[in-house]
Amino acid sequence: MVTARQRRWRAGSALGLLAFINLLNYLDRNIIFALFESIKRELSLNDVQLGWLGAAYVLVFSVAALPFGVLGDLKSRKTVIAAGTALFSAFTSLGGLVRGFTHLFITRAAVGIGEAAYAPASTSMVADYFPGKHRAFAMGILNAGIPVGGVLGILLGGYLEGVYGWRVALMAVGIPGFACAALVMMLVDPTRRDRTPSIRRMARRLGLGVLGVVHQLLPLLVFTGIGLILAFVLTQKFGIESRSDTIVLAVAIGLGGVLTIWRWVRLLQTDRRDETPFTPELEDAVEDLVRAGRTVLRTPTLVYIFLSGAMISFGTNGLVGWGPSFMTRKFGLSSGAAAQLLGTWGLVAGVVGTLVGGLIADGLGRYSDKGRVLTIAAGFIIGGPLAIWVLTLNNLAMFVPGFTIAFFFLSWFNGPMAAVIFDVVPASIGSTVVGAYLLFIHLAGDAIAFPLIGSLSDRFTLERAMILLPTVALGGGIVALGALTTIAKDMARLARRTPT
To answer: Model confidence over 93-120: pLDDT tens digits?
Structure first.
């Protein structure tokens, strides 16, 4: 018999470990931004190409988050988390061994696969560990890794780059993730028995022979072949320096993957299950996926949260990504000095802001169902204009405290945003909905922000391009206010459906 004290210990230790992995997650993701200027010099890149290095992770992460969210709802969440952690750690370290833009683009994209496996399943586990009134604060602790890890990636990356170079910096930060992956397997899932995915069963359904694999993956293989041909043609026409061949190949592979999955779903709908690799459990996954999509479209609160989240992702992640380069060019600092200055104060502001945002949301939530939504909106309505003003400053002594205050308010949303999602969706598809949320906000948010700001920078200067980022984030806070009119009804609807 598990005592209440043991349950609290399990919940607390699991939250601590998962929060630390989330920190590593965003550290590995954001360290590339501290290294932009050094990478640009050594590999002879322009700002558009730097933007695509930032977007490579986001594009793959966004597409992979949804299927991994489904897998987290069906199978062992801790297995999915451990595998994802090991994967993003490995490819972060491999980034230090590359010899050109193409190889670095591929390793950064692969980091996104590992981190997509971690995020939905860990969020779902924490939601189950901390039900009820303490959920937003627990989510705040978990998601403190977003600003903390993100800014620490810039801080640590700037330090390591200054001492050892950008290659060693990438290789070093990937190492701790392997130990964390092993520790995750020791956790106890709070609500379900572990169900390890059956690789052998999947292999049988796919067909053991080469022809069986080709049949199942035909669209992916065809589009990969088309992408390789187009990449070769582009290389011959524009030269290897254009880097357009890598982007075209990545898009072709992505389209092939989407069409492969679409083909499987169509076969399931026509009862031709033997022609798909789907086990009965994965057939249930398709149903869960459809159910999650319908839940989002039929839940007005989620529509506001998804739209707001995309605008917030565009603005905040763009600011973090381009911030070190902005300071280097505007104030004449070295890459390491800019990254350490931005990272130190961003770390303080991000930690305090995320925790304060969670506390405010839970405090207001005791009096009104609208408390968490109000907290999200307030942070951006205050912090957005502050950030716009800070970007116009020419005095470094004023820029640093102004940035710190603005980032404090811009960090409020992390815990309340995740809590609102779980407030209005059934627990059985919570991980899937989080995967859908991550897919949408990153594809419609920072995946666009990084190359767009790079393109605008090449054309108008980085200083002018950066103003767009907090402006869009402010708009995201305003859009979130729409959920004030829907949150109470959506929570009540979920309560009626949930057995007591």
So the answer is: 999 888 888 889 889 988 888 877 777 7
